Amino acid sequence: MPERLMRNEWAFPNRATPLGSSAYYSIRFSPARLRDDLAALLAWRHEVRAILDRVSDPGVARLKLQWWREELERSYGGEPRHPLSKVLQPVLKRHGLPAAGFERMSDEVEREILHRQPTDEAALDAACKRDQGALFELLARCHGLTDADSLDAARRLGGFCARVYLIRDSGALLRRGRSFLPGDLLQAQGVSAESLARAEHRDGLPRLLARAAEQGRAALAEIDISPGLPICTRVRGVILKALLEELERAGYELADQRIGLTPLRKLWLAWRESRR
Fold first, then answer.
1. 50-71 CB burial, b ≥16 within 10 A, e <16
2. How far apart are CA 178 and CA 115, in angstroms?
3. Does the pLDDT of residue 132 top 70, yes or no?
């Protein structure tokens, strides 16, 4: 593929930051000089997590994930093969991004491939931080943030966003045989992830999701979301907070529906946060 077309494919907006999405608005209000770099990071996570939806066989899925792990090593070594990696490699160098963030996202995808359910609330929190939390830390580093407090706040904010997405997609995940709900919470309610996927047990799902949301709101309240955090992380945070409020208004009846915000509302939330 010609280099010019390769750049266009992964530049902002790309398949991970489509028009109207929360990811789009989070990048749209970021500094223009960083938009393509940030979009490339989101694209890497998007491609790795797409394995979960595109591949049903766990063995094949792990092989594909291993390829991406090796491709990451090649990228840090200056010999990327994939078109996205060729765009991402100079981003890694330009911002001094550590491999650990990408490795944490990969580890979380492998955990989900293996259907390893969080055992308790602490395990769920850790899983969310390995996913969006690791991504948010990399985004913060692209903005030049390196102090421990700022990076910790970015990871925790990303973890909150990951949790909201899991709550929103809970019905679809259960139909695919996947569940993010902690095992001890399910056990206390006398249900399992498998039984929740059946129609006769769906009435119990909203109560469990409400508990997960309560924990998420408590965690969010403890995060210092100051203007010092990058606008891309703050915008995603306010949009996901509003989404969680919508899910609550719907009574967490998400077994058979997927609730989202309109692009216009996302735009308004993003613009308002950008003016803060």
1. ebbeebeeeeebbebbeebbeb
2. 6
3. yes
The residue among 217, 234, 224, 228 whose CA lies nearest residue 273 is 234
Compute CA distances 163 → 61, 178, 181, 193, 249, whole Å.
23, 14, 10, 17, 17
Burial category of 103 from C-beta neighbours within 10 Å (exposed 0-12, middle 13-18, buried 19 and up): middle
Question: Would you say residue 147 has pLDDT above 90?
Answer: yes
Cα separation of 10 and 86, whole Å? 10
236-267 in b/e burial notation, b at 16+ Cβ within 10 A?
bbbbbbbbbeebbeeebebbeeeeebeeeebb
pLDDT at 4: 47
Per-residue pLDDT of 165-179, as tens digits, reads 999 999 999 888 888
For 84, residues 6+ apart whose C-beta sits below 8 A from its C-beta are: 10, 40, 43, 44, 47
DSSP 25-93: HHHHTS-GGGHHHHHHHHHHHHHHHHHHHH---HHHHHHHHHHHHHHHHHHHTT---SHHHHHHHHHHH
Between CA 238 and CA 124 the distance in angstroms is 21
Digit-coded pLDDT (tens) for 24-63: 999 999 999 999 999 999 999 999 999 999 999 999 999 9
Give the pTM: 0.94
- Tokens describing residue 141: 């580093």
pLDDT band of residue 137 (cuts 50, 70, 90) is very high
Q: How far is Cα 137 from Cα 73, in angstroms, rounded to an integer?
A: 19
Burial of 86 (0-12, 13-18, 19+ CB in 10 A): middle
